[in-house]
Amino acid sequence: MNNPHSAACISHEASTAAVYATPSPLVQDAVSSTTTFRQLFDATSSTFTYLLGDDSSKTAIIIDPVLDQVERDLQIVEELGLTLRYALNTHCHADHVTGSGEIKKRCPLTKSAISEASGCKADILLHDGDEVHFGGNILHVLATPGHTNGCMSYYTESLGGMIFTGDTLLIRGCGRTDFQEGNARKLHRSVHRKLFTLPASTKVYPAHDYKGHACSTIGEEMAFNPRLRLHEDAFKKLMDDLHLPYPKIMDLAVPANTQCGS
Questions:
Q1: Fewer CB within 10 Å: C terminus or N terminus of the chain?
Q2: CB neighbours of 127 closer than 8 A, spacing ≥ 6?
Q3: What CATH number has the domain bearing residue 145?
Q4: CA-CA distance, 191 to 86, in Å (whole number)?
């Protein structure tokens, strides 16, 4: 049976997108190509998925896809005439199953990617300082452990500067640190030593939101995030005292996501 999304998945040469292990300076001249951007939402897990496409080459990446929303996501890719090259995860999620594997089945040229520190399997294992290129756009890979030991954030200068923070930095909050090798001190340092050194105007796009927010900025979070404004010791005490229940499908999601579309 013909794949309804195959034309959108394989219509361009693979050489238009690449992952590079040689880092370049984090702040460069703005890229010249224009970028398509979509923020998508899964209400069941309160997960944001992000689609970015290069308008010149029509190559695209997707960040934190959710299995139950793959049909929706690939329909948008097809409608926009994009070719999906990479399905990236910010970390090994515990509250939903990643859509990376299903996307790879439908789009043979798409490669899955996640941090090597996550312990997950994927086509590409990322490290701090790596770059993901799609057309004229670059995603800078930042290791931001704390919520889990393998958390990554992805920064691009496109559209005025955007950082995709996973669960490391949420809007007026942050991810929990009490499982999956979480560490409150590491999270605090990841935010203050890496994310909060980005330009204040950088738009923050997290993996989750539970209060109706969609976007923030680094400047806003530095000023108003009640958890991350705390000093490290106070932050650790707050996180250690949360005593939250585990995600409902954690026992299903974590084993499934360790494969991450390999």
A1: N
A2: 21, 115, 116, 141, 143
A3: 3.60.15.10
A4: 25
Report d(CA 100, CA 98) in Å as an integer.
Answer: 6
Judge whether 251 lies within some domain.
no
Domain extent, residue 156, equals 34-242
**C-alpha separations of 208 from 2, 32, 49, 60, 258 in Å:** 34, 30, 9, 22, 20
Is there a domain that residue 16 lies in? no
- Could you tell me if residue 189 is inside a domain? yes
Distance CA 138, CA 88 (A): 14
Cβ burial, residue 41 (10 Å; 0-12/13-18/19+): middle
Q: Pairing mode, if any, of strands 203-206 and 162-166?
A: parallel
**232-240 and 184-193 helices cross at what angle (nearest 10)?**
140
Distance CA 97, CA 250 (A): 9
- pLDDT tens track for 150-183: 999 999 999 999 999 999 999 999 999 999 999 9
Q: Which residues does 57 contact at the CB level (< 8 Å), separation at least 6? A: 12, 16, 17, 33, 134, 135, 136
Residue 5, pLDDT score: 53
The total of structural domains in the chain comes to: 1
Candidates 101, 62, 95; CA nearest to 205 is 62
